[in-house]
Write a structure and sequence with these properties.
The chain has about 110 residues and is mainly β. The chain has one helix spanning about 65-75, and strands spanning about 20, 40-45, 50-60, 80, 85, 85-90, 90-100. The protein has a domain at about 10-20 and about 40-100: 2-Layer Sandwich (TolA/TonB C-terminal domain). It has one helix and seven strands. The strands form three sheets. The chain has a three-stranded antiparallel sheet, covered by helices on one side. Strand 5 (about 85) and strand 6 (about 85-90) form a beta hairpin. The longest helix is centred in the middle third of the chain and has 11 residues, at about 65-75. It is elongated and about 45 Å long.
Length: about 110
């Protein structure tokens, strides 16, 4: 699955799309235990109305399960649409996700 060409790249926009949905950084679902730590990307097709029209995962086999779970979440997000010279336009946005990786400023917690 690919994003149609009428969804503009960020470099083509005069104003990038802005997320309007409040996202709780601690509200992401628990992933199955067999998901290995790593990274993947989701590419969003955002309509001129700010609705996410399509989500395309970019992942290796071991992270596609996690990507699929996250796709269901970001599909419901609402954006202020990107613009070209003041006119809302369909755009594409690529988001990177790390799963099972402890951030440098966080401490790993043992399972309870």
């Amino acid at each position: 699955m690919v994003i149609p060409v009428n969804y503009r790249k960020l470099s083509e926009l005069t104003r990038e799309p802005e997320l309007q949905t409040l996202v709780d950084e601690h509200g992401w679902p628990d992933l199955p235990s067999d998901v290995m730590p790593g990274s993947f990307e989701l590419e969003l097709a955002i309509g001129a109305d700010g609705v996410v029209d399509r989500v395309v995962p970019h992942c290796d086999e071991q992270h596609c399960l996690a990507a699929g779970i996250y796709m269901e979440i970001v599909r419901r997000w609402q954006f202020r649409p990107g613009e070209i010279l003041g006119q809302p336009t369909p755009s594409r946005l690529r988001l990177a996700f790390d799963v099972g990786i402890v951030a440098k400023n966080e401490t790993a917690q043992p399972p309870q």
